[in-house]
Please model this.
Amino acid sequence: MEKDRVFETVVGGFVLVVAIFFFYYVYQKSGWHGGNGYVLTAKFDRADGLTEGGDVKISGIKVGKIIDMSVDPESFFAVVKFSVANGLSLPRDSSASVSSDGLFGGKYLALVPGGDDELLTAGDEIENTSGPMNIESMIGQFLFSQKKEQ
Model:
């Protein structure tokens, strides 16, 4: 009887260690933790498809995440707050756009570094922005232009 309890205790301890390791791994990979980085903002006329917790990428590589999204009550622009890894110093003339991971992929915030000598600091706003391409509008413009030519 004593032997069974020792075995059960050892197995229970092993299961507990595996569970702790699993939760730690998920925590690290999920981006739930704040992570190191500084916060910037960007305003868009449209921010279709972006979500809080979404990726921020430079050259297709994740460098941060979207922290918060709101609407500016005066301009009605979408205000996107996002973090960028501390090791990246972005020039002041950098641009931000809403991009897509392929035809049916999700949206992410794409940053394109500029060439200015002055750098963005925490709390600054990226002023050069562009919203997502609207496929429906492009198809409509194409069809409308085809009708005009006939």
